[in-house]
């Protein structure tokens, strides 16, 4: 059994000051706690990325999604479909062929 008479009382805690003019984005006039200093952001390891240079070849409404300077056919990939073409039709419309 625990005897509550031997416990040390907790010190009184004063409420933090609030700004009554502070409102939330929805317009509620409920006082909010002011923002504290944000913790510094650490860089994520391996987050350095190099700029990707895409091939500039287009055919009708498709653009090649491969790296610039690739060999072979140009290829555009969309959801559930892939289109390939060679340099002879690059820059042309499908109806012209």
Protein described:
There is one protein chain. By secondary structure, the chain is mainly beta. The chain contains no helices and four strands. It has strands spanning 58-59, 62-63, 74-78, 81-85. Strand 1 (58-59) and strand 2 form a beta hairpin. The model has no long low-confidence stretch (mean pLDDT 75).
Q: Estimate the mean pLDDT confidence.
A: 75
Which strands sit side by side, in order, in the main sheet? 1-2
Q: What's the helix-strand series?
A: EEEE
- Helix-residue proportion: under 10%
Q: Alpha-carbon distance between the termini?
A: 93 Å
- Strand composition percent: 5-15%
Rough outline: rod-shaped
Number of helical segments?
0
Q: How many strands, which pairing sense, and closed or not: the largest β-sheet? A: 2 strands, antiparallel
Low-confidence stretches: none
How many DSSP-defined strands?
4
CA gyration radius, whole angstroms: 32 Å
Task: Briefly note the structural class of the backbone.
Answer: mainly beta
Identify the notable features of this structure and list them briefly:
97 residues, two-stranded antiparallel sheet, two-stranded antiparallel ribbon
């Amino acid at each position: 059994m625990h005897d509550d008479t031997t416990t040390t009382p907790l010190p009184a805690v004063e409420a933090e000051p609030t700004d009554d003019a502070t409102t939330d984005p929805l317009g509620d006039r409920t006082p909010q706690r002011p923002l504290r200093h944000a913790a510094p952001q650490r860089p994520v390891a391996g987050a350095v990325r190099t700029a990707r240079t895409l091939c500039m070849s287009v055919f009708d409404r498709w653009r090649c999604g491969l790296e610039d300077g690739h060999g072979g056919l140009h290829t555009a990939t969309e959801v559930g479909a892939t289109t390939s073409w060679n340099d002879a039709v690059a820059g042309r419309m499908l109806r012209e062929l």
